[in-house]
Amino acid sequence: MGIGSNLPLIDGQRLWDSLMESGRIGPGKAGGLRRVALSDADGEMRDLYGRWCEEAGLSVTVDAMGSMFARRAGREDDLPPVLIGSHLDTQVAGGKYDGILGVLGGLEILRTLNDRGIETRRPIEVVNWTNEEGARFNPPMVASGVFAGVFERDWALAREDDDGAVFGEELKRLGYAGEAPVGGREVDCYFELHIEQDDALERLGIPLGIVTGGYAARGFNIRFEGETAHTGPTPMAKRRNALAAAARVLAAVDDIGWKYAPEGKATAARCIAWPNRLGILSEWAEIIIDFRHPDPAVTAKMVEEGMAALEAAAEKTRVDYEIIQRWSFGDENFSEDLIGLVRGAATALDVPTHDMFSQAGHDAYYMSRITPTCLLFSPCRDGITHNEAEEIELAYTEPSVNVLLHAVLARADR
Amino acid sequence: MGIGSNLPLIDGQRLWDSLMESGRIGPGKAGGLRRVALSDADGEMRDLYGRWCEEAGLSVTVDAMGSMFARRAGREDDLPPVLIGSHLDTQVAGGKYDGILGVLGGLEILRTLNDRGIETRRPIEVVNWTNEEGARFNPPMVASGVFAGVFERDWALAREDDDGAVFGEELKRLGYAGEAPVGGREVDCYFELHIEQDDALERLGIPLGIVTGGYAARGFNIRFEGETAHTGPTPMAKRRNALAAAARVLAAVDDIGWKYAPEGKATAARCIAWPNRLGILSEWAEIIIDFRHPDPAVTAKMVEEGMAALEAAAEKTRVDYEIIQRWSFGDENFSEDLIGLVRGAATALDVPTHDMFSQAGHDAYYMSRITPTCLLFSPCRDGITHNEAEEIELAYTEPSVNVLLHAVLARADR
What is the reported pTM? Predict the structure, then answer.
């Protein structure tokens, strides 16, 4: 930012210290985090975040999906709040910044307003959305999805992990089955700051990405039903090996990804089967696949090819299939108004910005369906994320949080 | 058998009752059995089998791999014993007869000799081999394999199941970590009666199959090492998705099976991956594949194509791989001498026989490497096995056990 600027700025070291303290809760095996939603580690982090919020004089409300809203009152406190947020949960082998920066950056903004004694017209809330990653409970972004009316609350609370643990029960176990209704209240707008998850900003040497659109992403959870039989004697033509059907689809999906590369991506994300054993053909298998492209029309073509491969695999292997879940994101529009405020704040602070598309799902996607929404990126090293080696540097992160601070301030005083 | 024959015959009803009693231990979900090796159910069945053997006056010895040998003394008891056997463990969704018929049929033969007061020159032993199926502990046929010197005992005892339970510890837990050395003693010969696991005998209306050779089977356990990364932003060319590599190989294996059908078979048997989750590329995956053909030269060609597919998949996905286990069976030669005795007994009893190849692995394969071995099949309904719907009928089973009785008698008096 410009030398001699007298605009309020965050305390970068305090933000970094909070990130480091968070980075010790739920350690992975290689320096990162394994803090999947509603694990003991997630509970511990929630407790710490709640204490921090209370120490900052914020009032914390937990909704029935476990999302935590830390509120700083406005002068006109009945006005709908400006909401800032992201998520504190991680992948099973995740990093210390993904999502976490968005929540702790929001907290740092409110701490800064406290330090400076700055009042705002509107209240400001910082939210920690439950289970953004979907690493333990499928689907991802489920709590913001319920908030935005995309998913039914009771359906979401009934989701089970691989061991049969139930989302709603795990919330209760950790003391985060809150009483506040999920959504159903007016929100003035939603800001989310997230690490980029690619290396464009780092390559350009620009500390702030403004997301102007998303990759159109379409995902499918598919179940195959075949039949067990003895591997040795059962001829190919009599087999109904669900694992073979699953593998054929996963391989075809990878091929489709390559066909539409470099812009397009298609992912063999998950495969489980039963009995999944030597000597016996598998009775059932389940897979998760997805297709992503910046142009929704191309994504639709990829999906069409994927569905044809699914049909062909099922026929070849004599296996039945059912698409048990479809999901979609990336077509959402972000708010030109909010983006304008961000551009203004960046100019005032002399922070260069870069317009870009988001390639991953974020809570901001669902929120954009119900309120003006702005998604911002800050750089991450080598674009490595969802990996324990994920790294950021404070010097390239601090400017993005300061821009967010001023965009939020402008909106909260509107 | 011929009317008026005065040859000793088994008590078919007693055999059937024993099979039915066994069929209640470790019930599956659809009328069959889930009695995987060294489970509580396997322990219960072992206890029952041990009691039955003792009630029949047999002395039971358990070796360090947990295999149970029930011995009926011979007149010249120092001579190497005639061994009959198979296994009492099942697949996770298995039937009530596979393997079990071979053990309980052997016991019925000794009960019959007792009833008739028939002494034999050589001792006769009936063996229940531990973990033939390999459904819980990989590899299959591991205890007969150690007995035959194919696997190292300590390596086998250190095998772990998916939950980390150790073979040797599970043996101790159930009280079947025996003190007898594994193998290292002379065995006169080995007979194994097994259900066919295909429908050839049923279609032909013939109650006894004489196995004259095996399908050459080659199996591979392969581990892929890739790298986690975020699904959304990571372009295809930068991915190292271990699950995509695994799926490509499994799909190629299925293709190879079809290419060499109907005689050839290739199987996508197993796939596990980690994290195996939406939103993150998988760091590692493990698969089991196998190739089977009656002509070893063709099996070799199938393997060659499989290895080329493995190479191509690893290159395309930028994933490393390691073949962590190779296994092979089906090239073994069965004993012409023993087959001659079986043909003689079948003629005397007027039981039609059919020469055939075995398509599945059996303990007899490994035993054939160290002693004259004979593998016999009896019919199973519709060829359905490794499935809870597996069925046999006593009327089509009894003749095969009677032929075995007389072949064993002839050999034991040799």
Answer: 0.80
Q: Report the CATH number at residue A366.
A: 3.40.630.10
Q: Would B232 be classed as within a structural domain?
A: yes
Tell me the nearest-neighbour CA distance from A271 into chain B, angstroms: 7
Query: Are A237 and B261 a contacting pair at CB < 8 A?
Result: yes
Quote the crossing angle between the two packed helices B100-116 and B40-55, to the nearest 10°.
10
Q: Is residue B198 part of a domain?
A: yes
How would you class B163 by CB atoms within 10 Å of its CB: exposed for 0-12, middle for 13-18, buried for 19 or more? exposed
Instruction: Point out the domain boundary residue: A329, A364, A393.
Output: A329
Give ipTM to 2 decimals.
Answer: 0.81
User: Residue B293: phi, psi to the nearest 5?
Assistant: -155, 145
Residues of A in contact with B137 (CB under 8 A): none
B91 plus B195 within the same structural domain: yes
What is the longest distance spanned by two Cα atoms in chain A?
Answer: 82
**In this complex, do B235 and A386 lie within 8 Å of one another by their Cβ atoms?**
no
* Residue of B136, B228, B318, B380 to mutate for A, most A C-beta atoms under 10 A: B228
Which chain A residues are Cβ-neighbours of B251 within 8 angstroms? Answer: 244, 247-248, 250-252
Among the partner residues B196, B229, B273, nearest to A384 by beta-carbon distance: B229
- Final residue of a structural domain among A303, A329, A355: A329
How many domains does chain B contain in total?
A: 2
In chain B, count H helices and then E strands. Answer: 12, 12
The residues facing B124 across adjacent strands are: B72, B82
Is A232:B361 a contact under the CB 8 Å cutoff? yes
Instruction: List per-block mean pLDDT (blocks of 10 residues) for chain A, which spans 414 residues.
Output: 66 97 96 96 98 98 98 98 98 94 98 97 98 93 97 96 96 98 97 94 95 93 96 94 98 98 97 94 97 96 98 98 91 92 97 92 94 96 88 94 98 96
In angstroms and rounded to an integer, the radius of gyration of the C-alpha atoms of chain B is 22
What is the CATH number for A220?
3.30.70.360
Q: Does A135 contact B280 at a Cβ distance shorter than 8 Å?
A: yes
> What DSSP string runs through A126-179?
EEE-TTSS-SSSSSSSHHHHHHTTSS-HHHHHT-B-TT--BHHHHHHHHT----
> Is residue B6 a part of any domain in this protein?
no
Statement to judge: residues A335 and A306 lie in one domain: no
Partners of A254 on chain B (C-beta within 8 Å) are 236, 241, 244, 247-248, 316-317
Which residues in chain A are contacts of B361 at CB distance < 8 A? Answer: 232, 279
Domain housing B389: 12-215+331-412
If asked whether residues B150 and B59 sit together in one domain, one would say yes
